[in-house]
Amino acid sequence: MKIKLIPGDSAGTVTAFYMNSNTDNVRDELDFEFLGNRSGQPYTVQTNVYAHGKGDREQRVNLWFDPAADFHTYSILWNHHHVVFYVDEVPIRVYKNNEARGIPYPRFQPMGIYSTLWEADDWATRGGLEKIDWSKAPFVAYYKDFDIEGCRVPGPRACASNPANWWEGAAYLQLSPADARRYRWVRMNHVIYDYCSDKSRYPVTPPECVAGI
Asked: Which residues are catalytic, by number?
């Protein structure tokens, strides 16, 4: 999906582009959440992964460009091996399938694709310190060139595990060497929050962090 985010003062808003299983108790969800800012501050994208009803796996990245000045591409690769969040083909987050170690992975439920724009000034911008300025409304984000490839639901049950699907192919079992370099660059220079290292929330490191995300 190509998105151009809210220009100017967007503090207190969240523009979300996400996948969701639309189930109440055992929810699977993969989130891009773009956290609004005061003019001149970096735009932050928060990602989150829900698996088998458990979320609270937030990571935040300060984008290295102005996402309100032009359209940029935001995409999710979801297969049996890992979930990869991309910004302009640069991987910013990887969540690996560690089911063999007893760690939940979103594999059993189909998901739809959604987008919302909502007010969240109790937490979205600088932890809720920056409130929404309704005099700047309307807050508008723009979308184009939506594209999806995957298995239809309802459809053949064997589709999801069919190795003939390109997204299950050998090239997508792990990051390529070039993607791995870009991923390390993002992690070293642009990550501003990672739940894996938040000892105030998780005195014991979550198991998926130890297993390697």
From this structure: 29, 33
Q: Are 175 and 91 in contact (CB under 8 A)?
A: yes
Show Cβ contacts of residue 200 under 8 Å, excluding neighbours closer than 6 positions: none
- What pLDDT digit, counting tens, does each position of 79-117 carry? 999 999 999 999 999 999 999 999 999 988 899 999 999
pLDDT digits (tens, 9 = 90+) for 161-170: 787 899 999 8
On whether the CB atoms of residues 64 and 38 are closer than 8 A, the answer is: no
Query: pTM value?
Result: 0.95
Question: What value, to the nearest 5°, has the Cα angle with vertex 162 and ends 159 and 167?
Answer: 95
* Sequential DSSP letters for 20-85: E---SSS--EEEEEEEP--TTSPPEEEEEEEBTTB----EEEE-SS-TTTS-EEEEEEE-SSEEEE
- Sheet with 59-62, edge to edge strand ranges: 112-119, 13-20, 29-35, 44-50, 59-62, 191-194
